[in-house]
Design a protein that fits this description.
This protein has twelve helices and eight strands. By secondary structure, the chain is of the alpha/beta class. α1 packs across α2 and α2 packs antiparallel against α3. The protein is globular and about 60 Å long.
Amino acid sequence: MVVSKVCVVGSGYLGTQIGVLSAKSGYKVSMQDLSAEALSGSKKAVNGYVQEWITEGNISEQEGEAIKGRMSYTVDLADAVQGAELVIEAVVERLDVKREVFKKLDELCEPGVVLATNSSSIKVSKIEGATRHPERVLNMHFYSHPWRRRILELMRGTSTTDEAMEAARKFSYSIGVKPLIVLKESTGFIFNRVWRAIKKESLTVLDEGVASFEDVDRAWMSLYGTDMGPFGLMDRVGLDVVRDIEMVYYGESGDSKDLPPEVLLERISKGELGVKTGKGFYTYPDPEYRESGWLIREE
């Protein structure tokens, strides 16, 4: 199967990035969201990414206009999937919402259309049952700014065909992203399964009063030479998304130890969701950890 048009369902932070990278790679892209406001925000973000690439010298003004010209925006799902050979779902990390989306996609799309979820934690087998054609359902989990973090995790469900996997694999390479193949169904896939242990212990250290979130990040950044620590990364992901992912693990285990800790829930209840709201553990757009000397500054 040859992909010429991609539909992205969910025009949030990562959905928009998947869409604009696909358009940059020459594909027609239809962005769909139930919220006209979200679509407006997506279009504004696309303009920002394109301008950033122009400023950096990666593309010309003409190429930038061509990228924007390949993108369309609609609240109508039936209109969005028209002519698309690949549909990538990027809605909130809630199983009930994803299953409802896939049920509708299965009804609207021809059997040969590949349906991919961008879920960061939910197994494909939990989603595919909402469709009549589970053989075309798979997971393509992108990471933020995929033109910089050029990997995605590709995982099949219980019935996914080799043809569907191959179409997704070829598409990944065509947009300059390396598909990492998950050989066995796994909650959290590859990186997020490892990251979950780090994230969970970081939150526990804070919740138990062992250390401040700043010092957890200082330890991580100093020892591993990274530009942000676990709490900075959680802010970037979105604290509400972090909570939703933890609830996926709790839903599987039923163990109260897997519930999101109070230090996370308190911030969410105040609307402090991270980068997207201007405040999470840190304040944005200029978080403290980016300040010169922050790692060794005397308090």
